Amino acid sequence: MTLVTLVLVVALSTNAPVGEAAGDNYYIVPASSDVGGLSLLVTGENCPLDVVAVDGYQGKQLSFVPANDKKGVICVSTDLNIYFSTCTSCPQSTWFVTTTGGVLGNPGSQTISNWFKIEKYEDAYKMVYCPSVCNYCNYPCSDIGIYQDQYGNRLALTSEPDKVQFQRVPS
């Protein structure tokens, strides 16, 4: 078994603290009861794994690593990686866009698909792919939402964001 690391960059638009500490473990759960928490699923080849929302399940634990880790808290509009620490048969990998296979850290053009943001959305948050770790890179910004197919509820780039909350995993 090897460790799978899934990375997602998170940012909120006002640089205000989300109130969560970087490096702690969290669940990303729906703000409504529409779908469940985030997990990993084999949908094609054995690796990389796809990121899915699983009904009736709080999901797998994740950690947040800001691009600039000096503040020690997760802030809105601040790029960061989100990674799963889960034992699987896949080699170590990082969340990029909607599957695993990215790289933790190393902000720049080579890792542009690894970076996402968290933005305030109504009474909760939403995840967004709109990284600012590369000033000269050209990429389309998009919300992260749920796409339903034969495998279930996959995370995908969408115009309809998935409204989420963060629950700290008890120590």
From TrEMBL:
Gene Ontology molecular function: any one = endopeptidase inhibitor activity
Name-wise, this protein is Uncharacterized protein
Alphabetically ordered keywords of this record: Signal
Please verify whether the record's keywords include Mitochondrion: no
Instruction: Extract the InterPro entries matched here.
Output: Kunitz_inhibitor_STI-like_sf (IPR011065), Prot_inh_Kunz-lg (IPR002160)
Signal peptide annotation: 1-21
Q: Which residues form a coiled coil?
A: none
- What is the protein's species of origin? Phaseolus vulgaris
- Do you know which Gene3D superfamilies this protein is assigned to? 2.80.10.50
Task: Write down a Pfam family by its short name.
Answer: Kunitz_legume
From the broadest rank down, the organism's phylogenetic lineage runs:
Eukaryota, Viridiplantae, Streptophyta, Embryophyta, Tracheophyta
Asked whether the UniProt record includes Cell inner membrane among its keywords, one would answer: no
